Amino acid sequence: MTQGDAYSKEGMLDHAGIAARIPHQGTMCLLDRVTQWDEHRIECAATSHRAPDNPLRRNGRLGAALGIEYAAQAMAVHGALLADGHTAPKKGMITRVQRIALHAERLDDCTEKLTVRAERIMGDARVVRYGFEVRCGHHLLLEGEASVILDA
């Protein structure tokens, strides 16, 4: 898939396609589908926030701050999609989250799918920074920025 074809149907990834590109497997692979992407941004859908066996749940709850992990997985998929056909995807480690704004207490009480968006703000071969947001339908649940060091 070329970046010009980014929004074509054959370019969208399902859960298996996502799991093949990131280190998170089984129930820890939280995203269901890549719905759109281009060289600067990605949008994913998820329903795992409603799953009783979600590995991030504590005391039966899934706090809104855990949306950062959903965003991190979207960033990882984005990096892998950008690398497809060019180089092997680089492993990354979040080194900083900033400008976090929680607009909800929980993710698991959202009855609709989550929409996870990440946009690459800047970066090079070593470090990237993304802005992100997680929504339930039209409701913004959290937003922020994350810096990721590659091949740490």
Characteristic key phrases:
globular; disordered N terminus; Thiol Ester Dehydrase, Chain A; 152 residues; 14% helix; 2 helices; single chain; mainly beta; seven-stranded antiparallel beta sheet
Describe the secondary structure blueprint for this structure.
Layout: E1 13-14, H1 15-19, E2 33-37, E3 41-46, H2 67-83, E4 92-102, E5 114-123, E6 127-136, E7 139-150
CATH architecture descriptor text: Roll
Judged by helices, strands and strand pairing, the structural class is mainly beta
Could you give me the name of the CATH homologous superfamily?
A: Hotdog Thioesterase
Question: The CATH topology, please?
Answer: Thiol Ester Dehydrase, Chain A
The total beta strand count reads 7
Count the domains. 1
Q: What's the CATH C level?
A: Alpha Beta
Overall morphology? globular
- Helical region count? 2
Instruction: Please summarize the sheet with the most strands.
Output: 7 strands, antiparallel
Separation of the first and last Cα atoms: 28 Å
Q: Order of strands across the biggest sheet?
A: 1-2-3-5-6-7-4
- Average pLDDT: 88
Care to describe what's here?
- This protein has one domain (3-150): Roll (Thiol Ester Dehydrase, Chain A), CATH 3.10.129.
- It contains two helices and seven strands; from the N terminus they run βαββαββββ.
- Mean pLDDT is 88; it is low at 1-10.
- Helices cover 14% and strands 37% of the residues.
- The longest helix has 17 residues, at 67-83.
